């Protein structure tokens, strides 16, 4: 296999008239005519492969040197760079108000500048970079980012937008380089770059304070480094080999550090690496020691290094954000105690739980929430129609409970008695004066468990309100330590244990978390609680030093909270949610700004010509591959040019198609709410595939016409492609750069006649 | 046992005996006392409903799959003389003497029993010895969970039977390649039956397809024939079920009209073309969130909503999911005053402008630039009341017949899908999908919207008659009376078929957690069981619990195979050939069928968000039981070279088989529901803490 790689390299790079005439290259002739046998029986050529590799390398290096100094390469690259940056930076400060998700990510950038702790479902790198960009360009973090449409006024927002746009401008450049590297064809690379540069969707999504341009920057950088690394396979362990390996790893960490979608590109790189190692393993000229070296190098570069960087990002995140903020309630008591301004930071409260105290009870499951109740009842048909008891992630006065004795008579004077392991208590909800109550009805979601309700009034209830306190690992008579003891509440009447299932209740339960009474008595964090706040004026407050959590614990905790948060983003009932099959056909966009005809409107929608071209190439690609592979299978003799094409088409095209699939197919299985912009990473791969497919299609014109005409047809095809993209960009550019005035279907609109699909909303 | 492996001719004579013996044992374990318990067991309550509906020829939709399985159950019931008169409402309800319990359960039980000989044959087709085949058969024979699942009116045993049959037929065909033509007929014939379990079937078909490139015949057999059969079963399904039933409302008006006694009872004899003066009910063609009719009633929008926004305070217009006299509207020509149909009737066509008058309250359907109650970006739709606040009536609507290419320019009852466009604002009448709060009686909100998506804007005339009374009082009486006059409507099979497919994909019948539901990862270790039935007074009970020993062995062999395969592959890549080519092929083939079969029957469940039960794992389990003996034979022939080692292996295998049998015996009372066990004995059977075994307190 290795031999074949290098020979094709050699042939591809020497694509000049002199070299093309040298058809009779003794060894390559044989191998090139039978690529299928090579693919399957690579063992035959392996022995020769190594020596060939070194020969090929020198030739390849020479050719490469010449290739990069080739004036068109530089000119074309400069052209791509220039166009890319100018399209994305044009009108960057328009509109001067908050657009769409800027309200989230801008706000989070401000949190970094203000060092306030918050919670988000995405890892922190993207928002950290936004914050940094804002900080460097003089934004002071004071703009509140309350809702879309708020005017920025004097605040410096251009820096954050410009940063995102700069990263977004790199996408066409990277795509150009990747395709050039894969196909060695300038025209294919140029087609890809043009598709991306003039796509209104990519322009729009790059121009605002969003995570997507940052994410896509890292994805593309990782793919580019991977491709470059693959090209270095003939000179293993050289400096450039290491450079690209390390760059791949670093970019993977970056991609994952922005959004979990980065996992897909990690998968792509991972599988590519596995395939690469498999190839090396089959190379019998390499000793096992060398293979082990290869393996270890990849473990270091692609696993350990990214992991280290990823963890470092989180370390910075936790160090920077040291003030209490809106995200506290999602995390455990121990975590909260390290945030300045949180009530648990240097907390002082009575040390042992006592009767008559007001407490909050927090579940020990990660992101388990506080035991909570409110005036609302369980709806008809869900157990008994009594007051709801839930677990709630935010801090709220409805989380407060009073601790009572089994019999209501409390000693009025003197120091209150302390609660001990084995005591039987009642918990009264402070706001509604109902008791925590359990009975033999099915719980609302977890049907194996029993329902927990609030019952009774002013503290009078029945025997179903009695709970036995059990300190985990304790004995009868042990005291209950606030914050530090793990406590379980056993229901006296039924013997079940108070439990938080982690399932989100439907609308009637305000999407809070279900609390049940579980008959399975196994000790799990779901059935363990700790006492977080403890207020009792009759007892002295003692400064409590909570065990500071270990960094790895915080890391794990924040990940579980993020994953929960992600899967908790369910589509709302009345929201028209986007389906994955809408995306490739450009079915419906997203309103970034403005609705009515009086407002400044920006609409995220891909250039339909570009998107439908991509769709067509997705259909065309399998057909072309099928034709080629049948031709090879049937043993037709093909010219060298066509064999090269079929290689590019099957191997490199296959890589891109696989990348597209990895970034697209998983969305079909996701239960969370989906949006149009989730398709953009997949769209990058699709565009690169289009570049290769159309290029090869156009270069195959000599199948139907003779040489001079076929070349003309090819040029014509390229021109048609170019001008249709340019013209459609001219038509649709107001989508990105802003529209005012009447809507498209009304008379006098600037977009008149461009509403090609009823579902577009501009 | 070595000698057994080396006796080619004598063995062939023995095969039939062993096969017969195995089949007999299998029938015996599955069929004895089939009528006990004489009560509804677990999901019989679910499938029973469908069987009854088949018997009564009543149409239904079940989203769980194609109808063949239900039809097989129904066929059994039909042969057993079941007339469909039984109320399936409760697990444990006693069957009356008129219901032939054995009849209902016989077909699944026979299918379940035949799995055992089939596994025997399948192992032989994988080119393993008769001893391995016997081992596989025994493992399946003594699998308590399969016995339980086969003995009741449930679908899994039928599904497993067809799965194994399909795998067997394909291998048989593949091995007999020289005589392809001869076997083709047999193969396709067997395939006909295999189509039953379509979803799984397709996966297997695809996997095996990659082997053959040149033969188009195979593609025809594997793709076209199954497809035709799939359609055929739906044809049978739709032909059998021609009466209206509980799921009618999910289907389109045209579909309902084709069912006997459903909408057709009401709509039969309706005039076809909608004319000026027609009285109609308008059904929203969007099935989200639920099907409903355009509705109005004598209550106005509140002056101010909860959030402080104001309304027009005109009469509410909503969408109402039940039949009601307030759903009637009269189509009026804006240029004329009369509300009756002239003779000859003047039909309404595409592009005509009409007014819609609410039959009971005589308010015109109106819209204006006032924000709708729940969707402030859209316009409010109201029944117009003139409050003299310089808010003129804007009650003209243009009729757009959406499917005019397929049907015709004129507006037809049931057939036409119509968009109502507000003339003044060019907004479109549509359902917003949101329910109104209490002041709107939680009915659905209707709005007019300019930027609409193409769905949920269509309306169909469902009930229709020509109005004859000019006076309001008479008209009210007329509206209350049922519709009548004669025309017959039919839609083609293909339209029905496609609609049914679409509905089966999109309809979500309520799914919630069940007391015995479990997640796929729990199945591998059998964390949970399912209580199928508990005697109404004693401790006798039936549980779906697998044979713990054979489950453990199955999991072990799965791991062992993967480990072995990985080692072999790595070594082969480095040029060490541990196995001769024939043995390697056999080993790979074993992996493809067994591990592949396990994967395709298990992995999809990991991605599903449905309520899942332990019995969903049984098909995958069968493949693992197939794997175990074959792997042991492989170890015996290729890995162990020393005679002592081989003997040790034989001893181990015997020990395992004995313990499999013992654990089968132990769990028999929970499998067959008799004899009754005491609370202590039941406690002893609770091998895992997470199993739910029921005790009666006495």
Automatic annotation (TrEMBL), chain A:
TM spans (from-to): 158-179, 185-203, 210-229, 241-274, 295-320, 609-632, 653-670, 676-698, 719-737
This protein's pathway: Protein modification; protein glycosylation
Disordered, as annotated region: 32-55
GO CC annotations on file: endoplasmic reticulum membrane
Topology of this chain in the membrane: Multi-pass membrane protein
SUPFAM superfamilies xref list: MIR domain (SSF82109)
Keyword terms of this UniProt record: Endoplasmic reticulum, Glycosyltransferase, Membrane, Repeat, Transferase, Transmembrane, Transmembrane helix
Keyword match Coiled coil: no
MIR domain: residues covered: 350-406, 416-472, 477-534
Broadest EC class assigned to this enzyme: transferase
Main localization, broad class: endoplasmic reticulum
Source species, domain of life: Eukaryota
CDD domains noted in UniProt: beta-trefoil_MIR_POMT2
Keyword Membrane appears in the UniProt entry: yes
The EC number(s) this enzyme carries: 2.4.1.109
Compartments it resides in: Endoplasmic reticulum membrane
Single GO MF descriptor: dolichyl-phosphate-mannose-protein mannosyltransferase activity
GO biological process, one term: photoreceptor cell maintenance
Reaction catalyzed: a di-trans,poly-cis-dolichyl beta-D-mannosyl phosphate + L-seryl-[protein] = 3-O-(alpha-D-mannosyl)-L-seryl-[protein] + a di-trans,poly-cis-dolichyl phosphate + H(+); a di-trans,poly-cis-dolichyl beta-D-mannosyl phosphate + L-threonyl-[protein] = 3-O-(alpha-D-mannosyl)-L-threonyl-[protein] + a di-trans,poly-cis-dolichyl phosphate + H(+)
Family as reported in the entry's similarity comment: Belongs to the glycosyltransferase 39 family.
PANTHER family: DOLICHYL-PHOSPHATE-MANNOSE--PROTEIN MANNOSYLTRANSFERASE, PROTEIN O-MANNOSYL-TRANSFERASE 2
Protein name: Protein O-mannosyl-transferase 2
Source organism of this protein record: Sander lucioperca
Gene that encodes the chain: pomt2
From TrEMBL, chain B:
EC number assigned by the record: 2.4.1.109
Residue stretches making up the MIR domain: 271-334, 345-402, 409-464
Matches recorded under SMART domains: MIR (SM00472)
Listed GO MF terms: dolichyl-phosphate-mannose-protein mannosyltransferase activity
Membrane-spanning parts: 7-28, 68-88, 100-122, 128-146, 153-171, 183-204, 216-236, 549-570, 582-607, 613-632, 644-664
Database matches in InterPro entries: ArnT-like_N, MIR_dom_sf, MIR_motif, PMT-like, PMT_4TMC
Membrane topology value: Multi-pass membrane protein
Top-rank taxon, per record: Eukaryota
Metabolic or biological pathway: Protein modification; protein glycosylation
GO cellular component, one term: endoplasmic reticulum membrane
Compartments where found: Endoplasmic reticulum membrane
Reaction equation(s) it catalyzes: a di-trans,poly-cis-dolichyl beta-D-mannosyl phosphate + L-seryl-[protein] = 3-O-(alpha-D-mannosyl)-L-seryl-[protein] + a di-trans,poly-cis-dolichyl phosphate + H(+); a di-trans,poly-cis-dolichyl beta-D-mannosyl phosphate + L-threonyl-[protein] = 3-O-(alpha-D-mannosyl)-L-threonyl-[protein] + a di-trans,poly-cis-dolichyl phosphate + H(+)
PROSITE patterns: MIR (PS50919)
Top-level EC class as recorded in UniProt: transferase
Pfam families in the cross-refs: MIR (PF02815), PMT (PF02366), PMT_4TMC (PF16192)
Alphabetically ordered keywords of this record: Endoplasmic reticulum, Glycosyltransferase, Membrane, Repeat, Transferase, Transmembrane, Transmembrane helix
Family assignment from sequence similarity: Belongs to the glycosyltransferase 39 family.
PANTHER family, sorted: DOLICHYL-PHOSPHATE-MANNOSE--PROTEIN MANNOSYLTRANSFERASE, PROTEIN O-MANNOSYL-TRANSFERASE 1
Name under which the protein is recorded: Protein O-mannosyl-transferase 1
């Amino acid at each position: 296999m290795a031999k074949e790689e290098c020979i094709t390299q050699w042939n591809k790079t020497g694509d000049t008239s002199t070299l093309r005439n040298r058809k009779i290259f003794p060894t390559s002739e044989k191998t090139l005519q039978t690529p299928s046998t090579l693919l399957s029986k690579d063992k035959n050529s392996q022995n020769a492969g190594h020596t060939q590799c070194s020969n090929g390398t020198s030739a390849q290096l020479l050719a490469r040197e010449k290739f990069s100094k080739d004036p068109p390469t530089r000119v074309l690259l400069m052209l791509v760079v220039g166009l890319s940056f100018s399209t994305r930076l044009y009108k960057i400060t328009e509109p001067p108000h908050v657009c769409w998700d800027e309200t989230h990510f801008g706000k989070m950038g401000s949190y970094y500048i203000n060092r306030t702790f918050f919670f988000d479902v995405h890892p922190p790198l993207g928002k950290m970079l936004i914050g940094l960009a804002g900080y460097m360009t003089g934004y002071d973090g004071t703009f509140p980012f309350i809702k879309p449409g708020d005017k920025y006024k004097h605040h410096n927002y251009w820096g954050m937008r410009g940063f995102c746009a700069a990263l977004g401008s790199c996408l066409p450049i990277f795509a150009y380089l990747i395709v050039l590297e894969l196909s060695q064809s300038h025209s294919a690379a140029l087609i890809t770059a043009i598709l991306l540069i003039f796509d209104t969707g990519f322009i729009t999504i790059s121009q605002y304070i969003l995570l997507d341009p940052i994410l896509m920057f890292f994805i593309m950088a990782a793919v580019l480094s991977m491709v470059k690394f693959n090209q270095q396979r003939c000179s293993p362990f050289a400096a450039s080999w290491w450079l690209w390996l390390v760059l791949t790893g670093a970019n993977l960490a970056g991609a994952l550090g922005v959004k979990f979608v980065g996992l897909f590109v990690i998968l792509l790189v991972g599988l590519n690496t596995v395939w690469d190692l498999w190839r090396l393993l089959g190379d019998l000229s390499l000793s096992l020691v060398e293979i082990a070296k290869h393996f270890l190098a990849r473990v270091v570069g692609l696993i350990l290094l990214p992991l280290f960087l990823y963890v470092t990002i989180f370390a910075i995140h936790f160090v920077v954000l040291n003030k209490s903020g809106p995200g506290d309630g999602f995390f455990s008591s121990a975590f909260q105690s390290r945030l300045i301004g949180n009530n648990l930071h240097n907390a002082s409260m009575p040390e042992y739980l006592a009767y008559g105290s007001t407490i909050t009870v927090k579940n020990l499951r990660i992101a388990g929430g506080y035991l909570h109740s409110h005036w609302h009842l369980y709806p008809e048909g869900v157990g008994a129609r009594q007051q709801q008891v839930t677990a709630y992630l935010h801090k709220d006065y409805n989380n407060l409970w009073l601790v009572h004795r089994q019999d209501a008579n409390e000693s009025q004077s003197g120091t209150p008695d302390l609660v001990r392991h084995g005591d039987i208590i009642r918990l009264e909800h402070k706001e509604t004066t109902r008791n925590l109550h359990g009975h033999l009805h099915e719980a609302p979601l977890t049907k194996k468990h029993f329902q927990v309700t609030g019952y009774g009034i002013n503290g009078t209830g029945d025997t179903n309100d009695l709970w036995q306190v059990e300190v985990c690992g304790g004995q009868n008579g042990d005291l209950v330590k606030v914050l530090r003891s793990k406590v379980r509440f056993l229901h006296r009447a039924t013997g079940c244990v108070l439990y938080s299932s982690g399932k989100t209740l439907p609308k009637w339960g305000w999407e809070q978390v279900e609390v049940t009474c579980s008959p399975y008595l196994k000790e799990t964090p779901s059935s363990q609680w700790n006492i977080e706040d403890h207020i009792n004026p009759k007892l002295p407050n003692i400064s409590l030093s909570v065990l500071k959590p270990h960094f790895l614990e915080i890391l794990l905790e924040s990940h579980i909270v993020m994953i929960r948060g992600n899967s908790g983003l369910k589509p709302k009932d009345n929201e028209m949610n986007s389906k994955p099959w809408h995306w490739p056909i450009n079915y419906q966009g997203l309103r970034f700004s403005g609705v009515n005809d009086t407002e400044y409107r920006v609409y995220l929608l891909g250039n339909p010509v570009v998107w439908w071209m991509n769709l067509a190439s997705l259909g065309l690609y399998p057909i072309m591959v099928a034709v080629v592979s049948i031709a090879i299978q049937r043993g037709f003799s093909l010219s060298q040019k066509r064999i090269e094409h079929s290689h590019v088409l099957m191997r490199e095209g296959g890589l891109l198609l696989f990348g597209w699939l990895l970034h697209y197919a998983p969305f079909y299985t996701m239960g969370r709410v989906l949006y149009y912009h989730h398709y953009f990473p997949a769209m990058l791969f699709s565009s690169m595939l289009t570049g290769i497919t159309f290029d090869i299609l156009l270069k195959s014109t000599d199948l139907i016409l003779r040489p001079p005409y076929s070349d003309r047809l090819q040029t014509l095809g390229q021109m048609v492609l170019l001008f249709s993209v340019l013209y459609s960009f001219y038509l649709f550019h107001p989508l990105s750069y802003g529209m005012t005035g009447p809507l498209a279907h009304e008379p006098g609109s600037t977009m008149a006649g461009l509403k090609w699909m009823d579902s577009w909303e501009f | 046992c070595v000698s057994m492996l080396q006796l080619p001719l004598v063995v062939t004579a023995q095969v039939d005996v062993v096969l017969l013996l195995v089949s007999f044992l299998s029938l015996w374990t599955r069929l004895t006392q089939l009528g006990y318990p004489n009560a509804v067991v677990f999901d019989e309550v679910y499938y029973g409903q469908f069987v009854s509906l088949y018997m009564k020829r009543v149409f239904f939709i079940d989203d769980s799959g194609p109808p063949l399985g239900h039809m097989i159950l129904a066929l059994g019931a039909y042969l057993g003389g079941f007339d469909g008169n039984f109320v399936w409402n409760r697990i444990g309800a006693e069957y009356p003497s008129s219901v032939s319990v054995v009849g209902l359960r016989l077909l699944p039980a026979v299918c379940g029993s035949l799995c055992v000989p089939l596994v025997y044959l399948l192992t032989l087709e994988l080119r393993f010895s008769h001893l391995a085949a016997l081992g596989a058969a025994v493992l399946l024979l003594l699998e308590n969970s399969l016995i339980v699942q086969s003995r009741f009116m449930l679908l899994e045993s039928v599904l497993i039977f067809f799965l194994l049959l399909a795998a067997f037929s394909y291998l048989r065909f593949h091995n007999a390649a020289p005589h392809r033509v001869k076997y083709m007929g047999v193969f396709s014939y067997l395939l006909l039956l295999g189509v039953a379990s379509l979803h799984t079937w397709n996966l297997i078909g695809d996997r095996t397809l990659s082997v053959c490139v040149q033969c188009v015949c195979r593609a025809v057999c594997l793709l076209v024939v199954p497809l035709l059969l799939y359609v055929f079963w739906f044809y049978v399904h739709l032909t059998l079920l021609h009466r209206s039933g509980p799921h009618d409302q999910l289907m389109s008006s045209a579909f309902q009209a084709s069912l006997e006694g459903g909408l057709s009872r009401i709509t039969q004899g309706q005039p076809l073309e909608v004319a000026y003066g027609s009285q109609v009910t308008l059904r929203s063609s969007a099935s989200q969130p639920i099907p409903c009719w355009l509705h109005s009633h004598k209550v106005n929008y509140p002056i101010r909503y909860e959030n402080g926004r104001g309304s027009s305070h005109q009469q509410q217009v909503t969408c109402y999911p039940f039949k009601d006299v307030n759903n009637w509207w009269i189509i009026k020509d804006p240029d004329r005053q009369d509300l009756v149909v002239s003779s000859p009737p003047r039909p309404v066509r595409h592009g005509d402008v009409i007014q819609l008058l609410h039959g009971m309250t005589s308010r015109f359907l109106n819209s204006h630039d006032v924000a709708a109650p729940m969707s402030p970006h859209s316009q409010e739709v109201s029944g117009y009341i003139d409050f003299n606040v310089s808010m003129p009536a804007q009650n003209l609507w243009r009729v757009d017949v959406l499917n005019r290419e397929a049907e015709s320019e004129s507006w037809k009852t049931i057939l036409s899908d119509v968009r109502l466009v507000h003339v003044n604002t060019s907004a479109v009448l549509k359902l917003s999908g949101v329910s109104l709060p209490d002041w709107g009686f939680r009915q659905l909100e209707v709005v007019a919207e300019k930027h609409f998506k193409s769905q949920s804007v269509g309306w169909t005339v469902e009930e229709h008659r020509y109005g004859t009374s000019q006076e309001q009082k008479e008209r009210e009486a007329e509206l209350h009376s049922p519709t009548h006059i004669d025309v017959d409507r039919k839609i083609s099979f293909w339209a029905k078929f496609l609609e049914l497919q679409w509905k089966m994909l999109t309809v979500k019948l309520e799914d919630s957690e069940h007391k015995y539901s479990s997640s796929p990862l729990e199945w591998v270790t059998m964390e949970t069981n399912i209580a199928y039935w508990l005697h109404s007074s004693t401790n006798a009970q039936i549980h779906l619990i697998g044979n713990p020993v054979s489950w453990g062995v199955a999991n072990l062999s799965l791991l062992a195979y993967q480990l072995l395969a990985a080692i072999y592959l790595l070594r082969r890549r480095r040029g060490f050939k541990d196995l001769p080519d024939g043995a390697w092929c056999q080993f790979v083939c074993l992996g493809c069928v067994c591990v592949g079969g396990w994967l395709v029957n298990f992995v999809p469940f990991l991605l599903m968000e449905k309520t899942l039960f332990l019995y969903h794992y049984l098909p995958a389990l069968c493949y693992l039981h197939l794997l175990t003996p074959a792997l042991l034979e492989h170890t015996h022939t290729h890995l162990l070279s020393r005679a002592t080692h081989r003997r040790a292996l034989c001893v181990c295998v015997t020990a395992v088989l004995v313990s499999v049998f013992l654990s089968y015996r132990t769990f028999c009372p929970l499998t067959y529901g008799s004899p009754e066990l005491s609370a202590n004995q039941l406690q002893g059977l609770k091998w895992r803490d997470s199993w739910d075994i029921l005790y009666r307190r006495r």
